[in-house]
Design brief:
Elements (H helix, E strand, L loop, with lengths): L10 E2 L3 E5 L6 E6 L3 H8 L2 H4 L8 H9 L2 H4 L14 E7 L2 E7 L10 E2 H8 L3 H17 L11 E6 L2 E6 L11 H4 L1 H22 L7 H4 L3
Antiparallel strand pairs: 1-2, 2-3, 3-5, 4-5, 6-7, 7-8
Bound molecules: adenosine-5'-diphosphate and magnesium ion (MG).
């Protein structure tokens, strides 16, 4: 059991608090915000609310994401890890079940900046364009399946003198039927769709955002 009761999260998303692991400084522990699973369940349409809690629990979805075919049996030095935090499983904490993964840090040791922050600071400059291109090629080459790729779920790390992106949230398959898990053609199409949508979202984030994202997404 990890005691996080006196720790402060270094970051929080819409669903989880992220803490630095008290025993391993290179790991982070993510726990669901108090009451969040119940809240999401209440808001969901009835047919979704009928299913188990795991649907509304980002940690459970992350477990499933790391269990996908190309990651399940991947060797430690495989290129599938080039843009993903290493995964250490679920651990009990004082704040509830915690998902433990590699904490990505910048050269000063502080948690890495998200792509969202990077775009606000530097916009779409050449180094980040290069990083996005390499990240996309990696998705195509490895076949790693992700949900929609959002700038606040990618972090920017310097590796060998250049910026690289890591996906810290959103692994897994967004489709109801997991065809892309089993068929190469579906997989390729699925991945291209995620990449296309990622660019759409990036261009929206650096725009004046006069169109709401929900609408821009459909254009
Ligand atoms: N492995 C990690 N390394 C560094 N920062 C991280 C890591 N995982 C998450 N973060 C930071 O914490 C924030 C929230 O984490 P995330 O997993 O996206 O939670 P949520 O499920 O609430 O969306 C991220 O936007 C990022 O800033
Ligand atoms: Mg997130």
């Amino acid at each position: 059991m990890i005691d996080l009761s006196n720790s402060r999260p270094f970051a929080s998303g819409g669903n989880r608090h992220c803490y630095q692991h008290p025993d391993f400084p290179n790991r982070c522990v993510k726990v669901m915000l108090p009451g969040r699973v119940a809240e999401l369940r209440q808001r969901a349409p009835w047919y979704k609310a009928l299913t188990g809690d795991s649907r509304f629990d980002d940690n459970a979805r992350e477990v499933a994401g790391y269990r996908q075919k190309v990651l399940r049996n991947a060797a430690k030095d495989s290129s599938v890890w080039d843009h993903l935090p290493r995964w250490y499983g679920i651990t009990q904490t004082s704040e509830g079940p915690g998902a433990v993964s590699e904490l990505l840090r910048d050269e000063y040791g502080t948690p890495a900046m998200t792509l969202e922050t990077y775009l606000k600071k530097f916009s779409l400059d050449d180094p980040i364009r290069g990083a996005l291109e390499r990240f996309s090629q990696w998705l195509r080459a490895t076949g790693v399946l992700t949900k929609n790729l959002l700038p606040h779920n990618l972090v920017v790390v310097t590796r060998k003198g250049q910026e690289e992106l890591y996906l810290v949230d959103g692994l897994g398959n967004a489709d109801f039927l997991p065809l892309s898990e089993h068929f190469a053609v579906s997989r390729r199409r699925y991945i291209e769709r995620r990449i296309e949508k990622m660019w759409k979202r990036i261009h929206w984030e650096i725009s004046d955002r006069h169109i709401p994202w929900k609408k821009a997404e459909r254009l």
